[in-house]
Amino acid sequence: MPHHKPDWEAVLTEAGLRVTRQREIVFDAVGAGEGHTSVGEIYARAKRRDPSIRLSTIYRSLRVFAELGVVLTVPSGDGELLYEVRHASPHHHLICRLCGTQLPLANEIASNMVREVQRVHGFEVELDHLVLWGVCNACLSADVQSRHF
């Protein structure tokens, strides 16, 4: 997934933080993921670029990136946080709890859902990133097949 390196660097600089080699490695490791990425995957990618990088550096960098909004976090459902570089425009995902498949969810569908929430509940939703967890069609089909034998 391409990310916008100058954007994250500018955000750090505006926040009075230094742009370091370690932060660049961590940011690139997040951006190299296909969608939401675990700390373990980020650490493995970062270690390939710099074998001396520590897990504590990964966590500190991710915390800074998340606080500044250049990296998004989403709970995995099993207590782990997953990370993704913020896109320039809203984007949404469907993620299978069984196999981890990530499918894009059209912004139009998410926007319709948000409008309905606002209409029914009078709640102003801020929607730039939505993740819906469930079970994909392939896993559902496999489950149905396994019940017949």
Description:
The strands form 2 sheets. A 3-stranded antiparallel sheet has the order 1-3-2. The chain has a 3-stranded mixed sheet with strand order 5-4-6. It folds into 2 domains: 5-85, Orthogonal Bundle (Arc Repressor Mutant, subunit A); 91-147, 2-Layer Sandwich (Dna Ligase, domain 1). Residues 1-6 have low confidence and may be disordered. The chain is built from 6 helices and 6 strands. Helix 2 (21-31) packs across helix 3 (39-49) and helix 2 (21-31) crosses helix 4 (55-68). It is flat. The N and C termini lie far apart (40 Å). The longest helix is centred in the C-terminal third of the chain and has 15 residues, at 107-121. Helix content is 48%, strand content 19%. It is α+β, with helices and mostly antiparallel strands.
Topology summary:
Layout: H1 5-14, H2 21-31, E1 37-38, H3 39-49, H4 55-68, E2 71-75, E3 81-85, E4 91-96, E5 102-105, H5 107-121, E6 129-134, H6 137-147
Parallel strand pairs: 4-6
Antiparallel strand pairs: 1-3, 2-3, 4-5
Helix pairs in contact: 2-3, 2-4
Summarize the structure.
By secondary structure, the protein is of the alpha+beta class.
The CATH first-level class of the largest domain comes to Mainly Alpha
Q: What is the topology, as strand order, of the major beta sheet? A: 1-3-2
Mean pLDDT: 85
Could you estimate the helical fraction of the residues in percent?
40-55%
* Oligomer type: single chain
Would you count the extended β strands for me?
Answer: 6
C-alpha termini separation: 40 Å
The low-pLDDT segments are 1-6
